[in-house]
């Protein structure tokens, strides 16, 4: 596997955290039948995984900034570089013993994501990309799908849980997109959804309420695989908006037109 020193560092950190999480994942099924449940155990597993990643990355690059789901944001002596990390994307799946969750690590340079790793330890699928070097899954290069007809397209999304403010808009998206497409999936890991767009498994993905650590690595995967990834609202900064639409070049515009319709 060829890559920069930073990319290789990211892959090493992802695999190390993955080994820890897989070990914990094997315990989840046993905990489901306990009175207390698996929630506290999974929270500790999540935090432990982030600590492993942070130790690996910051130990090697102590001047870089940091943004992690569990440990928050910290400025670095080098203001131009920042790690963006989600140690366990798909926590609810993990909690319920569903083998669909991932580790997401991105490197941002001067406001642009320049390298990304999304690791699915349960399936041993490592998606990675670096600016100008294409997108890969393990040792094979990946590309976005070649579908041009929206009626044949399989889409993925994230549905807000609880009473989040974007639920009505997401329901409108479903009503508008489902009749026009081959189907919509909600798998529960945004990082993997974006990786699957990069690999051509999904034709597009959108979400209206998403954090930077959930999508940062996936953005460069999609773009290096030949796709487009932007905020749902045209012209908005993707991290500031907290929204994303990713698709191949033929389907991006028709899907964006539907999502950007007035309420």
Query: Could you say which structural class the secondary elements and strand pairing correspond to?
Result: alpha+beta
Mean pLDDT level: 93
Largest sheet: 8 strands, mixed
Helix content: 25-40%
Strand order of the largest sheet: 2-1-3-4-5-6-7-8
Shape: globular
CA-atom Rg in angstroms: 18 Å
Distance between the first and last residues' Cα: 47 Å
CATH homologous superfamily heading of the largest domain = Fructose-1,6-Bisphosphatase, subunit A, domain 1
Beta strands, count? 13
**Name of the CATH first level of the largest domain:** Alpha Beta
CATH topology of the largest domain: Fructose-1,6-Bisphosphatase, Chain A, domain 1
Order of helices and strands: HHEEEHEEEEEEHEHEHEHEH
Tell me the count of domains: 2
The DSSP helix count reads 8
How would you describe what is shown here?
The protein has 263 residues and is of the alpha+beta class. It contains eight helices and 13 strands. The protein has two domains: 5-142, Fructose-1,6-Bisphosphatase, Chain A, domain 1 (2-Layer Sandwich); 150-259, D-Maltodextrin-Binding Protein, domain 2, CATH 3.40.190.80. The chain has helices spanning 5-31, 39-60, 91-95, 167-177, 190-198, 212-224, 238-241, 252-259; strands at residues 65-68, 72-74, 81-89, 102-109, 112-120, 125-130, 135-137, 140-142, 154-157, 183-185, 204-207, 228-230, 244-247. Helix 1 (5-31) runs antiparallel to helix 2 (39-60) and helix 5 runs parallel beside helix 6. The strands form two sheets. It has an eight-stranded mixed sheet, sandwiched between helices. A five-stranded mixed sheet has the order 10-9-11-13-12, with helices on both faces. The model has no long low-confidence stretch (mean pLDDT 93). Strand 6 and strand 7 form a beta hairpin.
